[in-house]
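4.2 Preliminary Data

To establish feasibility before requesting continued support, the project team ran the inverse folding procedure on a target of 343 residues. The structure was first converted into the token representation described in Section 3, and no sequence information of any kind was made available to the design step. The complete token record follows.
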């Protein structure tokens, strides 16, 4: 979750995260030619030394200092938690935004990366969105969902080649491979079921999360896995102000691209999206086309009009996102007659 900031800032700290250490750089608008750099271990002791180093340079962790880092997933979790506990003004930004704002560059190292992030924070401070911790249950669900995805991928890596062997007529070899990996597959399936049980238990224990998942799941085509994933990746459906923003994040909004009077591209979705949600929504759209009367008619009508099949499926995905956003926003179960109010 984020919040905007509007405070005169005196110091800007850029932090480049690595697996075992992080680099920090300090710059000030009053003395832009001078910068300080130091590297610290990714440990509680390293976080404390980082705080001491800031104090040594008269930089306090308060509302006059903006700390900025790239989002690196699990690697920045410890430092983010430390800074949140210190009530720091922390900005966790998309790596791509920082990279594109830095212009053309040749070569890079940890020190220059930290300085680059610090300059980014100084230049775009008016657009900073401060980081706030997610709900504990949502964070726990995120870790479980991520682990479930790994297990599902592992099962695919084991079972798909086996089916290909059978299709190629190598029955003897297929049986040999199947017998050898049977215990591993059984264990993976058991682990997957256990994680799904834990996910369901966490959702059931939180009344607000449970209601939101039920509202989302009431939309035809949206299953428990997708509903929970939407809940997690949208921070409890609080990360976006409207359905279009959420659909854009899910990668189901087509964008046009033109230049001058002659260059015209067909509208297409952007690759900058949550691909995990996009994949889940594709499966939901295929289900909705079969089971939702309105969307089934919509799909058939567009196909008869000569529309591209994938573009129609994407439109169905978009409609599903709008429906989910609407039912969660209005706190009510989805009804067929309710669809017209979901846009």
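Position-by-position output of the design step:
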């Amino acid at each position: 979750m984020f919040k905007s900031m509007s405070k005169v800032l005196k110091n800007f700290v850029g932090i480049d995260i690595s697996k075992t250490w992080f680099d920090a750089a300090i710059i000030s608008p009053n003395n832009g030619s001078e910068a300080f750099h130091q590297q610290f271990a990714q440990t509680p002791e390293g976080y404390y030394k980082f705080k001491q180093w800031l104090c040594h340079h008269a930089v306090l962790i308060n509302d006059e200092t903006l700390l900025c880092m790239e989002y690196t997933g699990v690697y920045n979790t410890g430092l983010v938690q430390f800074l949140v506990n210190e009530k720091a003004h922390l900005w966790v930004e998309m790596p791509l935004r920082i990279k594109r704002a830095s212009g053309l560059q040749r070569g890079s190292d940890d020190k220059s990366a930290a300085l680059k992030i610090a300059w980014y924070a100084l230049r775009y401070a008016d657009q900073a969105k401060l980081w706030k911790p997610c709900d504990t249950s949502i964070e726990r669900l995120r870790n479980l969902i991520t682990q479930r995805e790994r297990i599902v991928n592992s099962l695919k890596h084991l079972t798909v080649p086996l089916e290909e062997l059978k299709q190629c007529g190598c029955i003897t070899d297929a049986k040999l491979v199947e017998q050898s990996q049977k215990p591993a597959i059984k264990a993976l399936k058991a682990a997957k079921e256990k994680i799904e049980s834990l996910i369901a238990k966490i959702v059931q224990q939180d009344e607000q999360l449970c209601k939101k998942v039920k509202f989302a799941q009431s939309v035809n085509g949206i299953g428990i896995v997708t509903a929970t994933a939407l809940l997690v990746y949208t921070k409890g459906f609080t990360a976006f102000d409207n359905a279009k923003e959420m659909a854009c994040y899910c990668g189901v909004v087509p964008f046009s691209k033109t230049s001058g009077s002659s260059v015209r591209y067909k509208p297409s979705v952007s690759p900058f999206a949550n691909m995990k949600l996009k994949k889940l929504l594709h499966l939901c759209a295929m289900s909705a086309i079969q089971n939702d009367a309105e969307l089934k008619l919509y799909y058939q009508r567009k196909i008869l009009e000569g529309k591209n099949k994938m573009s129609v499926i994407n439109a169905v995905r978009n409609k599903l996102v709008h429906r989910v956003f609407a039912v969660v926003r209005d706190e009510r179960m989805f009804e067929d007659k309710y669809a017209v109010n979901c846009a």
